Amino acid sequence: MTLPCFPRVIICFVSFLVIWLTAAGAADAAVVPGNVRVALAVQTNTLGFKTGGDYRLVDQSTGKEIAKLEQGEVWQVLVEDGQILLQGRKGRLGPFAGPVAACEQNFRIQIMAGAGEAVESSTDQIFVLNGEGSSISLNAVTKPYATSPQKKAALAADGELNLVSIMNGTTALRYRGNLEFRVENGKLAAVNELNIEDYLRGVVPAEIPPSWPMEALKAQAVAARNYALQRVETTRGRSFNLLNNQYNQVYRGYDAESPATNQAVDETGGMVMTSQGSLITAFFHSSSGGYTENCEDVWIEQLPYIKGKVDPYDKNSSHYNWQVDYTVQQLTSKLQAAGYNIFKLTDIEELARTASGARIEKIAVSGQGATGEPIRVVISNADKVRIALGLKSSLFTLEKVCNQKGGLEGVKIRGCGFGHGLGMSQWGAYGMAEQGYNYQDILKYYYSGVSIAGDYGRTSFR
C-alpha cells in the first residue's frame, strides 16, 4: 500500500475557494502517469538515511506517523527478527512490521465550503477544469493558481527541493521522492518511489554522457521512459519495479542530474514509442559494432520493432577492434563463473551466427565434468554466448590456439561493439545527432515501424 503524504503548504481562504486554470495554465497541463519504484539496495542488514526538505517517517502498515524528520538528521535502519528497527535522535524506535517510509510532504489545500465547513484534501484528490473544459488532476498542472474574491494565489511551494539520502559511510547519495524500507527474505531493502519524470532525470545522465548532442539525449530520454513504463506494467503487485543498475537501467538519483539531460527529459515529457497501439520495450545498448540484431537471435522473444540492420552511424574508438586472449584455464574459469559445469575444457566450436552474420549466436564447449565424465554444452542465443565468455559483445571472431598435439591451449578473440546489440545504439544515436538528425529520426531508425506519441501514448504525434 502506498500512503498519501502531506503537507508542506496549506492554503486557506475564508470564503469559497474556486480553482481554475488560465489558458496558459491549460497549455502547461500534462498527463501524470504516476510513480515508479526503484530498488536502491536489497538483501542488506542495515542502512542509514537523512532528509533535506520536508519529510515525515511513516509506518505504512498502520498509516501512523512515527516522527517528523528534521533537516540533515541521520537515522539508522536495521532488521531484527524479521522486523524493522530505527535509531535516531529519540533513541531506538520499533520494532515495526513495515514497510516504513521517509515520506515527502506534498501540498494539502484547505477549502472553505459555502456553509463554512473546512474541506481538506491533497492535490492528487482535487480535479479541476482546464481551458477545454476537461477534468484533470490538480497535480497535472505545472503552474496552477486559485482565486478568491480578495486575491489570486499561486499554488506553489517555497522552492525548497525535497531530497532523501542513502548513507554509506561518510557518503550520502541523494534522491527525489520517498524512501521506503521493507523486509525482503529476512533482509533489508530500500525502495525509492518517485514520479517517472523525476526518475528519468537520474537515469539519462547515468546512461549517456550529458555532453553529447541534445537530440541524442532526447532519444535516450524517450527510450528510458518506454523501458520504465513497460517495467511498471510487468511488475505490478511486486515491491519494486526496477533495479537501479544495468540489469534494468542505471539510476543514480539527484546527484547525477545535469542541466542538459534535465532539459532532454523536460522537452520530451510524456513522449513514448508505440507499435500496433501498444508501448514498446525499448532496449538499448552502448555500441552496435556496426550491426543491430533481431531480438530472437540475441534473446528468445520475437518483437516486430526490434529488427537487425546495418548501423553506419555507430563509429567510435572505444568499442571497436577490441581483443581478448584466454588460456584454456582462464576460459574454463569464465564458463564456470557463468554456471557451466565444465572442469576441464578440451574444445570450443562456433555453431551458428545471427541473421546479420555479424554475431555468434551459438557455440559448443566440450570437456570433462566434475567427476571426469565427458560433457558437451551448447550455449545459445547470442547474449548468453557473450556472458558465458565474459565479452563486451557477441560480435567477434574466435581463433583456437592449440599445441603440437592438437590439444586446446587457449583462444584469441577479436571483436567490436559493447552490449547486446538490440534496439538503439547509444553511440549510433550520437552519430546520427552529429549528422543533424533529430531524436524522432534516431528512434525511428533503431526501432522498426514505431510511432511516437505524446501524453504517455494517449495522443498521436506526427
Structure report:
This protein is of the alpha+beta class and 462 residues long. It has a domain at 286-421. The protein contains nine helices and 33 strands. A hairpin with a 2-residue loop joins β22 and β23. The longest helix is centred in the middle third of the chain and has 21 residues, at 214-234. The chain is globular.
What's the layout of helices and strands?
Layout: E1 10-12, E2 18-20, H1 23-28, E3 35-44, E4 46-52, E5 55-59, E6 64-69, E7 74-80, E8 83-88, E9 91-96, E10 100-104, E11 108-112, E12 118-122, E13 127-129, E14 135-137, E15 145-147, E16 152-154, E17 163-168, E18 171-175, E19 178-184, E20 187-195, H2 196-207, H3 214-234, E21 242-243, H4 259-267, E22 272-275, E23 278-279, E24 284-285, H5 295-298, E25 322-327, H6 328-337, E26 344-353, E27 360-368, E28 374-380, H7 382-389, E29 396-402, E30 408-415, E31 424-425, H8 426-434, H9 439-446, E32 451-454, E33 459-461
Parallel strand pairs: 1-11, 3-21, 24-31
Antiparallel strand pairs: 2-15, 3-20, 4-7, 4-17, 5-6, 5-10, 7-8, 8-9, 10-19, 11-12, 13-14, 15-16, 17-18, 19-20, 22-23, 22-32, 25-30, 26-27, 27-28, 29-30, 32-33
